[in-house]
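--- STAGE predict ---
source: upstream dedup step, 1 unique chain passed
mode: sequence only
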Amino acid sequence: MEVLNLREYREKVKMTQRDVAEALNTPQSNYCKWEKGISMPDARQILQLCDISNCTPNDLFGIKGVH
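--- STAGE serialize ---
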């Protein structure tokens, strides 16, 4: 399974896993699994993560050079 750059962008906005999980109204254990690549957030959650982290879905997926 692909690992998203969640930790990198979470740390840039100085949030804990708990902070992000609460903002998404999801258990911290779910968010932790996303950071580890064990499971993936759904499309709606990815967009919310982008809003929280001030990044694009391409950033989260590590896609470079696509505009």
